[in-house]
Amino acid sequence: MPLMRMAAENSSVTEFILAGLTNQPGLRMPLFFLFLGFYVVTVMGNLGLITLIGLNSHLHTPMYFFLFNLSFIDFCYSTVITPKMLMSFVSKKNIIAYAGCMTQLFFFLFFVVSESFILSAMAYDRYIAICNPLVYTATMSPRVCSLLLLGVYVMGFAGAMAHTTCMVRLTFCANNLVDHYMCDILPLLERSCTSTYVNELVVFVVVGIDIGVPTVTIFISYALILTSILHIRSTEGRSKAFSTCSSHIIAVSLFFGSGAFMYLKPSSLLPMNQGKVSSLFYTTVVPMLNPLIYSLRNKDVKVALKKSLSKKTFS
């Protein structure tokens, strides 16, 4: 792989040591079981939602097409991060090879950026469904949905490539202890012996785009949705419209709030311990909560789950 070859040539470091979440031995086993539980719930919740949507034909609509992909993304990037984080609780030194670190960084960024754009695609879908219901089927055709999804993954790939390419050009110092539980951008920049000015500029520009564009899209979509809802005369109609969007609003707030707090504040104002806690939200907590938020607050998913369970019981 060209990037890995370039990395080997540019750096004297062949491996990194991940410091993990805590250096207090007494907290390691309780945290291990806590985050193992989180990961099990994340895997079961997201794979369960993927299976449920795949098996129930009445859920084969644009809204659930995007939800299917959101669950896939959540499952993938949680799997990229959590198993290695769990290792830090049970091993004296959580070592990761240089190539493995850069690979983890790439796929983490790919899935996180993809999630930000799929949330904006879901907001656009809700805007069309509520504000233009008569043309919903024509507007959100399978071709349009596929193109939106392609755009989501293209932006994810572009963002991941921009950061990873800049990272492998750096030379890292002999001190290879990364003060984090994963290979993330800011902790790795602290270990560089060369100037990180370009990397920091890329962080503000690319992260600004990856958070800014979806946030503006979501804000405009929900401003138009709110305007449309206020014109609905019946209380029942308003309540139904609000319930349709509430799950998505909760997921968006959790994801973008923690991401912006981590990356869009100067590192001097954000101690690394606070950065770890913030990153826990979008790497561990959000992927676990998303399937719960979308299933517990969604009548269609509840009905599909009851049907699937009843079929299984009957058979």
TrEMBL record:
Keywords of this entry: Cell membrane, G-protein coupled receptor, Glycoprotein, Membrane, Olfaction, Receptor, Sensory transduction, Transducer, Transmembrane, Transmembrane helix
Pfam families reported for this sequence: 7tm_4
InterPro entries: GPCR_Rhodpsn, GPCR_Rhodpsn_7TM, Olfact_rcpt
Membrane topology value: Multi-pass membrane protein
GO CC term, one of those recorded: plasma membrane
Record domain G-protein coupled receptors family 1 profile: where: 45-294
Subcellular location: Cell membrane
Domain of life: Eukaryota
Similarity remark: Belongs to the G-protein coupled receptor 1 family.
Stated role: Putative odorant or sperm cell receptor.
Identification of the protein by name: Olfactory receptor
